[in-house]
Amino acid sequence: MRITQPGFEHHLRSGPRASGFAWLLRDIRPSQRHNRIVDAPLAASRRIVEGGGHVSAIRVTEAWYIACLVRELGSTPLARTVLGTPLVLFRAEDGKAAALLDRCAHRNVPLSLGRVSDGQLECAYHGWRFDGGGHCRKVPSLCTSPGFKRSIVPHYATRESEGYVWVFMQPDVEPPSEPFRLPLLTECGYSTVRRTVETEATLHATVENALDVPHTAFLHGGLFRGSGERNRIKAIVTRQADRVQTEYVGEPRPEGMAARILAPRGGTVRHFDRFILPSVAQVEYALGEDTHFMVTSICTPVDDFHTRMYAVVSFRVSRLPAWLIKLVLYPVAMKIFGQDVAILRAQTKAIQEFGGENFTSTDLDLMGPQVWRLLRRAEQGKLGEDDDPAWRREIDIEV
Ligand code: FES
Ligand SMILES: [Fe+2]
Questions:
Q1: Cβ atoms of residues 53 and 70 within 8 Å
Q2: Stretch(es) of the chain classified as CATH 2.102.10.10
Q3: Strand-strand pairing, 136-138 and 129-130
Q4: Terminal C-alpha separation, the chain
Q5: What is the pLDDT, as a whole number, of residue 272?
Q6: Sequence-separated contacts (24+) of 263-270 with Cβ below 8 Å
Q7: pLDDT one-digit tens code per residue, 172-197
Q8: Which residues contact 149 (CB under 8 A, 6 or more apart)?
Q9: Mean pLDDT of all residues in 201-230
Q10: What is residue 65's DSSP assignment?
C-alpha cells in the first residue's frame, strides 16, 4: 500500500501485533487501504480528521525514535517517515548513519531518489551533493564553491545502538539525551527474538492495545487467558515523570493454551505493564518458576495513523529449548496477532469515518488515559516532569 500524502514515499505494511509473549513470532505483512488524513501543524496535540473531530494523535519531537534496522542501511539512500516527516538516511563520509530531511534544498526533489557517492548524498535532479550535516558540498558545473555558509538541509542526530538506527526528531540540535536501552539482551539464560510490525493506528492506540489486559480474555479468549472462570486480582498503577506502570498481583497462571505450555506446573503470575516515554510499551511476565518473558515494543510513529513497532522479546523458559517454544507457540501467536491488528484497523477506520473519537472509559482502562497524559505533557515540553509524583491507584479487577 502506498501513502498518498505529499512527501510520504513509503510502502506501509500493517502487521499483526499482540499483547504478551505472542511477539516472538515472525513479521506479518497484510495490507490495507490507507484513509486520507488532513495534516495539522506539528505543535498541535490533536489531529483533525475529515469531519473535524479529535484524535489521540500526538507528535513528541524532542525524542529518539528508531528509523530502521542497522542492516537495512546499505550503500543506497533509505527513505523513512517518522512523525509525518520524510527523512533520508545514508552512510556519510565517516561511515556513520546520517539523516536529512528528504527534500533537496535546490528544487525540493526527494533526496532519497539520489545516490550516495563518497559518503555524500547526490540529488537525482541536478546533482547537488550534501554531507551528513546537510551542507552543500558541490554544485555540478558551477565553477566556484557553492558558497553556502551554513547547512541548507535540516539534519537529524543519529545513533546506532543495539541493532537499530535511531534519530532525534528535532532537527539541527545536539540531543540532550541518549536512546532507550533494551533490558536482558546479554543476560545469561535468555533468548531474544526481534520482529518489526506495523499497525494502522495511532501511537496511543497501538500502545494502549499492547498494554491492555481486559481485551485479552475477550478478543483472545482461550488463547492466552482462559475464557472460563475469572479470577479477582489487584492492579496497582504507579506513575513517574517519564513512565507509568501497572502491577497485577495475585493472578494464578492463566488456563489458556499458551500459558499451559509455558508453565505446565502452574504457579502464580508476576505481571507488569509499562509505558516509558516517548514510545516504549513493555510487558513483563513471570509464570511460576519456569518462565520469564519481557516484551519491549519500541514504537515509531510513522504518521498520525501508522505506527511501526520494533518488538524485542527476551525470554527464559526452563526445561524447554528456545526453538521449541517458538515452534509450539507459532500458531497461537499468529491467531493473536491477527486479532489485534484487525481490531486496531477497525478502530482506526471507525474513528476516521465518524470524524474523530468519542471514547468512554472506566477504571478498567488502566493504562490508556495515563499514557495519553504522559504523551500530552511530553508534547508540551514537560518531558520528565510530573505534577503529582505521589500518584498511585489500586483497583480490583477480574481477569
Ligand atoms: S532539485 Fe536537487 S539538485 Fe536540483
Ligand atoms: Fe491483544
A1: no
A2: 63-175
A3: antiparallel
A4: 38
A5: 96
A6: 263/287, 263/288, 263/290, 263/291, 264/290, 265/289, 265/290
A7: 999 999 999 998 888 888 888 888 88
A8: none
A9: 84
A10: E
Does pLDDT of 322 surpass 60?
A: yes
CATH superfamily of 191-398: Naphthalene 1,2-dioxygenase Alpha Subunit; Chain A, domain 1 (3.90.380.10)
Bridge partner residues of 99 (DSSP): 89, 156
Taking the model in full, what pTM does it have? Answer: 0.85
Output the CA 106–ligand 1 centroid distance in Å. Answer: 5
126 C-alpha vs ligand 1 centroid, how far in Å? Answer: 5
Report CA-CA distances (Å) from 72 to 75, 91, 338: 10, 11, 26
Closest ligand 1 atom to residue 109 Cα is 1
The mean pLDDT value of the chain amounts to 83
Those residues with Cβ within 8 angstroms of residue 274's Cβ, 6 or more apart along the chain or in another chain: 211, 243, 244, 245, 246, 280, 281, 282, 283, 284
DSSP state of 89: E
The string of pLDDT tens digits covering residues 323-333 is 887 777 767 77
Specify the residue with its C-alpha closest to ligand 1, atom 3.
126
Starting at the edge strand found earlier in the chain, the sheet holding 164-168 runs: 64-69, 164-168, 158-161
Q: pLDDT value at position 334?
A: 72
Give the pLDDT score at 216. Answer: 86
pLDDT reading at 301 higher than 60: yes
Q: Which residue has the cell 498481583?
A: 249
Helix (H) or strand (E) holding 375: helix 368-379
Q: 63-175, superfamily in CATH?
A: Rieske [2Fe-2S] iron-sulphur domain (2.102.10.10)
Q: What is the pLDDT of residues 94-122, one digit of tens each?
A: 999 999 999 999 999 999 999 999 999 99
Does residue 223 register a pLDDT over 90?
no
More confident residue, 103 or 146: 103
Contact indicator for 83, 301 with CB cutoff of 8 Å: yes
Cell digits for 298?
Answer: 519500541
Cα angle 53, 350, 217 (rounded to 5 degrees) comes to 120
Distance between Cα 17 and ligand 2 center (Å): 7
* DSSP 3-state of 72: helix
Q: Which atom number of ligand 1 is nearest to the Cα of residue 127?
A: 3
**Which ligand minimizes its atom distance to the CA of 219?**
2
Q: How far is it, in rounded angstroms, from Cα 390 to Cα 130?
A: 50
